[in-house]
Automatic annotation (TrEMBL):
The chain crosses the membrane at residues 66-85. It comes from Kibdelosporangium persicum. PANTHER family: DUF839 DOMAIN-CONTAINING PROTEIN (PTHR35399:SF2), SLR8030 PROTEIN (PTHR35399). This is Twin-arginine translocation pathway signal. It holds the Pfam family PhoX. Residues 84-114, 512-533, 657-678 are annotated as: Disordered. Residues 92-106, 514-523 have a biased composition (Basic and acidic residues). The keyword Protein transport does not apply. The keyword Lyase does not apply. Keywords: Membrane, Transmembrane, Transmembrane helix. It comes from the Bacteria.
Length: 691
């Protein structure tokens, strides 16, 4: 566990001195100040690690690591453990002191943490901006003019604060690129913005700046750049006024009917779309996350008390949309609130198709959704609910995937997420509770690990939760999961299966309330640090490596932070040879199964960044920083191809003291320009990103 490099060895670059974490202005616009309120999970379902640990011991299961090693037919045994670190040290020593070591197959040397106002990429890599807020998406879009914005123009241009990015292949070096536009930050979008009295046009620009964009992109052979095309057929903007279909078992429910939609099956728009995933059948999934912040009067006496489980009740909103459309006033239109908080499916191949909100995947603050196909053809969707002390879910389809790329197969596969079984995760540790002391110190068995089970909540129109009808499970999913005894986690963000091994990885961003705020749960083996500032990455393997299984074994792969701090863990790898990492948010994989992690709110004095880490073999746990994004920005939506990486640079320059009058980032256009959220590409001048 020593953090000091041995003499002559090269310590990976560490920290600078300028501290910033998540800014208050980001909290206001993005998540309605979620962290300044008590976390809305006030349920008393407890962590049962102790109890089950004894059962596990009696059964002689001893250690989840053993389950991992034997469970995965066709899966390589796990690599590095704490015990393996000395051997790695010796190899690193033998390799040569001070020289970059790329034997992990990741063809870059780590970049140093910094606070620069640019993307800092590794030596030997080029970069370009693919598309920026305000760039044209639809034919006829006017040139972006910061000082003369209109809602009509924004509805044809790339929206604000792009988060998830996904590529759907369209041909050789040609893709449909889908981007979420999570939220608008009016203070940075408009000079002279009066937050108490926004104009109707400003509000309508906000509606058009939210949602989703589909843009055809092509790789330019000569320059290596990824270039957007103004494609008349495929390019599309989805906004807060686009019509969506509600489908699945709760569609048409009394909880989803409004004065504008007596069917409970049609809803306008999507809100706060954060991460997502590309399905094997070529559609894009997108998670509606902090939707609660858009609804006024959630504290009204007449409002359903279940609303409070989705965020602190409040009379007001930041953007005041309720003044221009009363569906955003929960006291006047109580059920509109229930029509957000879903996984949305968009078919980028068919720009005329209505996007779908899948009630079968439950309603919570969906971060993202990622699919794995089981051996029997059923599809499994992994999902996180991004709130302190909330849960990890999965959905298993009833139907089976149709293979092939035909339109017919895609139309059939688009029905897969409409019917199936929704589960929530329960994690149990295998170490004595006394050894999980909240400091992050590893227990005596050397790992934070254990077993888990998937608790069914509902399947089709059958509920498994006492006191809940099936439609109540799908619409008030958080409350059903409370009742079922799910494990309270430290903000589950992106959850994604490794396409090479099948093991699943969940980013748990942070939870500074754990064991700190009175009445809230303390340290548990799956969430072992009190006041968890830097987050961790959880890894699990389904029994038999079958994603439809209801049992699994798990371990913490990374416990993030400054590697010189004793409360961190990097898959057992030598901590003097890893990059510092804080607040993991989105995860992605390259084709070799290396995990890529982007961060949100780095609490280690550096800009946010993108990191890569092998998950198998002798370099398992060796985290290397690939890039940093400009100051004030968050790294989102990583896409890892063989010869380029895409990142969404969200909210550059979003500092509390900044505004449109006082921009504190000038990325990407430089000079005195306003910052613009963008998608950027980074690629190696020669060769591939990993071997
Ligand atoms: Fe939009 Fe959970 O981050
Ligand atoms: Ca343990
Ligand atoms: Ca996120
Ligand atoms: Ca992801």
């Amino acid at each position: 566990m020593s953090s000091r490099p041995e003499p002559g060895r090269r310590m990976l670059p560490l920290l600078t001195d300028n501290h910033h974490g998540r800014q208050a202005i980001t909290c206001q616009y993005r998540c309605n100040n979620a962290c300044s309120h008590e976390a809305p999970n006030t349920s008393d379902n407890e962590y049962f690690g102790d109890v089950v640990r004894d059962v596990v011991r009696r059964r002689g299961m001893l250690k989840a690591g053993a389950v991992f090693a034997v469970a995965g037919a066709g899966v390589t045994a796990l690599g590095g453990t704490a015990a393996a670190a000395p051997a790695q040290n010796a190899e690193a020593e033998a390799h040569g002191r001070g020289r970059p070591d790329r034997r992990d197959g990741l063809n870059f040397d780590p970049v140093a943490p910094n606070t620069e106002d640019r993307i800092v990429a590794p030596e030997g890599y080029d970069q370009s901006v693919v598309i920026r807020w305000g760039d044209p998406v639809l034919p006829g879009a006017p040139k972006f003019d910061f000082d003369r914005q209109t809602a009509a123009a924004q509805a044809k241009q790339f929206g604000y604060n792009n988060d998830f990015c996904g590529l759907v292949p369209l041909g050789h070096n040609r893709w449909l690129m889908g981007s979420n536009h999570e939220y608008s930050s009016e203070t940075f979008m408009f000079k002279g913005y009066d937050s108490a009295n926004p104009t109707e046009e400003q509000v309508k620009i906000g509606w058009a700046a939210h949602g989703f964009s589909v843009v055809v992109v092509e790789k330019d052979f000569w320059s290596g750049k990824l270039v957007p095309r103004l494609d008349r057929h495929y390019n599309r903007r989805i906004t807060v006024t686009t019509e969506f279909v509600l489908d699945g078992p709760a569609a048409g429910s009394k909880y989803l009917r409004t004065s504008a939609d007596s069917t409970g099956r049609k809803v306008l728009g999507t809100l706060n779309n954060c991460a997502g995933g590309v399905t094997p059948w070529g559609t894009i999934l997108s998670g509606e996350e902090n939707f609660n912040g858009y609804f006024a009067n959630s504290n009204s006496g007449s409002v359903d008390p279940r609303v409070a489980r989705y965020g602190a009740p409040s009379a007001t909103t930041s953007r005041k949309w309720e003044r221009f459309d009363q569906r955003f006033d929960i006291a006047k239109e109580p059920n509109e609130f229930n029509r957000f908080g879903y996984i949305v499916e968009i078919d980028p191949h068919d720009p005329k198709s209505a996007p779908v909100k899948h009630t079968a995947l439950g309603r919570f603050k969906h971060e993202g959704a990622n699919v794995r196909v089981a051996r029997d053809g059923r599809v499994v969707v992994y999902m996180g609910d991004d709130e302190r002390f909330d849960y990890i879910y999965k959905f298993v389809s009833k139907g089976r995937i149709k293979h092939g790329n035909s339109q017919r197969a895609r139309e059939e596969n688009k029905k897969l997420l409409s019917d199936g079984t929704l589960y929530v995760a329960k994690f149990t540790g295998d170490s004595p509770a006394a050894e999980i002391d909240g400091s992050g110190k590893l227990p005596s068995d050397g790992e934070f690990d254990g077993v888990g089970e998937w608790i069914p909540l509902a399947s089709g129109d059958k509920s498994f939760v006492d006191g809940f009808t099936a439609e109540e499970v799908y619409v008030f999913t958080r409350l059903a999961a409370d009742k079922a005894g799910a494990t309270k986690m430290d903000r589950p963000e992106d959850v994604e299966p490794n396409p090479k091994t099948g093991r699943v990885y969940a980013a748990l961003t942070n939870n500074t309330d754990r064991g700190v705020r009175p009445g809230k749960e303390g340290a548990t083996e799956p969430n072992p640090r009190i006041g968890n500032k830097h987050g961790h990455v959880l890894e699990w393997e389904e029994r038999g490596n079958d994603p439809t299984a209801t049992k699994f074994s798990w371990k913490l792969f990374l416990v993030c932070g400054d590697p010189s701090s004793p409360d961190t863990y990097f898959g057992g790898y030598d901590k003097s040879q890893v990059s510092p990492i804080s607040c993991p948010d989105n995860v992605a994989f390259d084709k070799r199964g290396n995990l890529w992690i982007s961060t949100d709110g780095n609490a280690l004095k550096s800009n946010d960044g993108l990191f890569a880490v092998p998950t198998e073999g002798r370099y398992r746990g060796r985290v290397k920083q690939f890039l940093t994004v400009p100051k004030g920005a968050e790294t989102c939506g990583p896409v890892i191809e063989d010869d380029f990486v895409l990142v969404s640079v969200q909210h550059p320059g979003e500092f509390d003291e900044a505004s449109a009058e006082n921009p504190l980032s000038h990325w990407p256009d430089g000079g005195t320009s306003q910052p613009r959220p963008s998608v950027a590409a980074i690629w190696p001048r020669r060769g591939k990103i990993c071997d």
